[in-house]
Design a protein that fits this description.
mainly alpha, about 100 residues
């Protein structure tokens, strides 16, 4: 593992709820449901509720999930504005509205 993995540069608090769900969907697609539960350390009902938007995906779960993605996958998932916020380039998306 590299000394400074790419996901350590991501400010997960800046990621919107839709992006968080998409990240979990990608992990579930890669690992399957059961392995995703173990990898993220969450209960079956919690993962189900996160994926359906019933509950907000916590920052720590997103951070764990990022460790199972390649940087290119993250870039595919995250829309440009969220990516800029996540890496700290912009702080307030209202500047673009």
């Amino acid at each position: 593992m590299p000394a400074n993995p790419w996901y350590k540069r991501v400010n997960v608090t800046a990621l919107g709820e839709e992006v968080r769900r998409l990240i979990l969907e990608r992990i579930k697609g890669k690992l399957g449901f059961e392995k995703t539960l173990r990898a993220l350390g969450v209960a079956r009902s919690s993962l189900y509720n996160y994926l359906r938007g019933v509950r907000t995906v916590p920052d720590n779960v997103v951070y764990k999930a990022l460790q199972y993605l390649e940087e290119q996958e993250f870039n595919e998932i995250v829309q440009e504005i969220d990516r800029l916020r996540a890496i700290g380039i912009i702080r307030d998306s209202s500047l673009f509205n």
